[in-house]
Amino acid sequence: MFRCRLPSLATTARRYASVPAASLRFGQPVYETHPHILKPGERKFSPPPCLTPGITAKEYADRRAALAHAMGEGGVAVLSAASLQYKSGAVFHPYRQESNFFWLTGWNEDEAVAVIEKTGPELGDYRFRMFVKRKDPRDEQWSGFRNGVQAAEDIFNADEARALGSAGTILPRIIESARLVYTDAAPDASRGMSSLSTAAAQRTLSSMFDGGSKLTALSPVMNKLRVIKSDAEVANMRLAGQMSGRAITEAMRRSWTREKDLHAFLDYQFISSGCDGPAYIPVVAGGERANCIHYTVNNDVFRDGEFILVDAGGEYGNYITDISRTWPVSGKFTPAQRDLYMAVLRVQRTCVSLCRESSGMSLDDIHAVATSGLEAQLRGLGFDVSMSNIGRLFPHHVGHYIGLDVHDCPGYSRREVLRRGHCVTIEPGVYIPDEEGWPKHFRGMGIRIEDSICVDEDSAYILTTEAVKDVDDIEALRS
């Protein structure tokens, strides 16, 4: 019997349900159907079971409790699942859940609405409802298994779950009684409610927007909750970083002729080493193409005497890692390559060391250190550079937050002082145009060195240390 019902944090009165695991097929992995993904130890009931790799059902319940506690009195949060995105016609992209929805529920299917209603002042005083697709054998024959309404209660711990079509009658009553409605499904007539794929749910949320005075943005509240990572989240990101770092180091061992071959190798290595897949389309740039920060066509060839710049990372349990490495096509640095590379590496190491709570610094503060450090390093190499024009060679920020998204918690300020549990990238770079005015032997070079970091109290916890970056280590891989 499959039993996965959790009591509320505030009460033990919630019921438990039993479901024969053999009688159900789910739309996402559980241990009984995918033991190769969720280990037996992750399905024990003390501690509670993992709904997704590494994240327990209790942690999801704690997250919902934290959101309810952060809302104002009488607050209701309404979230819609991401829509399935189509490449063309009936050809769809791999599904990716909306990050806030996933963080609160662990649910990884489209056509779903989650409602979290604050019911009292104490932590854990909330009610969790879900509106989801019914199981339908005919549809599942074509499009794969679904979790279904029963699983939303028995496995994902909704207090009440209904078929999505019933949202049209139930949601208005919930919204009418609310004092504040937290949502990011903004009323935009130009694009409609594209995050909900059923007309009934669209009409329901559209009616909610008629009472616009109740509306308040959900994302600022979610950003404050999500930006500090739990130990379990950091563990997932460390696994992603470890596997991704090893894949990139393995790529450095080999000689490459075409960018697309290296791209394909990285994708394969991420998956074969244990990641769910690549976290994003990688940058695989040879020579001067590295000066395009987001070069992703990856369709040219590598030439001897040039650098290879790779910006890539894998994903594990929907948590990502972000790594950039630069190395010579030949495997051996020329004197000019070594000088410019070491200038960036020195700055990167200085900035990584500042990713600790005790530094009292923010990402913006560290960016200022990176900018002044690169200016000093480049002047020492003969560049006519100052703080007024360093942005020509270093045009991007030194870092961003990471987590479920590559650029996690969008809108959360980089001016916030770093605290334990913040996870960030540190990625200084220099990009030298092939133009008069810059030292000739450096022209056309693009270098970026990036690690994913978890901030601790007195040190930086590097999540991607397996990706080598010392000059001697890189050269030794091909010797």
Q: How do the helices and strands line up, and which of them pair or pack?
A:
Layout: E1 50-52, E2 55-56, H1 57-70, E3 75-80, E4 86-88, E5 91-92, H2 99-105, E6 113-118, E7 126-132, H3 137-143, H4 148-154, E8 160-163, H5 167-177, E9 180-183, H6 199-209, E10 215-217, H7 219-226, H8 231-252, H9 259-273, E11 277-278, E12 283-286, E13 307-312, E14 314-316, E15 319-320, E16 323-328, H10 335-353, H11 363-380, E17 423-426, E18 429-431, E19 446-448, E20 451-455, E21 460-462, H12 471-477
Parallel strand pairs: 3-9, 7-8, 9-10
Antiparallel strand pairs: 1-2, 3-6, 4-5, 6-7, 11-14, 12-13, 13-16, 14-15, 17-20, 18-19, 20-21
Helix pairs in contact: 5-6, 8-9, 10-11
What is the strand tally? 21
Number of domains: 2
Q: Quote the distance from N terminus to C terminus.
A: 57 Å
Rg, rounded, reads 25 Å
State the major sheet: 6 strands, mixed
Q: Per CATH, which architecture of the largest domain?
A: Alpha-Beta Complex
CATH class of the largest domain: Alpha Beta
Description:
With 479 residues, this protein is of the alpha+beta class. The protein has two domains: 23-221, 3-Layer(aba) Sandwich (Creatine Amidinohydrolase, Chain A, domain 1), CATH 3.40.350.10; 228-477, Creatinase/methionine aminopeptidase superfamily (Creatine Amidinohydrolase, Alpha-Beta Complex). Helix content is 30%, strand content 17%. The chain has twelve helices and 21 strands. It has helices at 57-70, 99-105, 137-143, 148-154, 167-177, 199-209, 219-226, 231-252, 259-273, 335-353, 363-380, 471-477; strands at residues 50-52, 55-56, 75-80, 86-88, 91-92, 113-118, 126-132, 160-163, 180-183, 215-217, 277-278, 283-286, 307-312, 314-316, 319-320, 323-328, 423-426, 429-431, 446-448, 451-455, 460-462. The strands form seven sheets. The chain has a six-stranded mixed beta sheet, with helices on both faces. Helix 8 packs across helix 9 (259-273). It is globular.
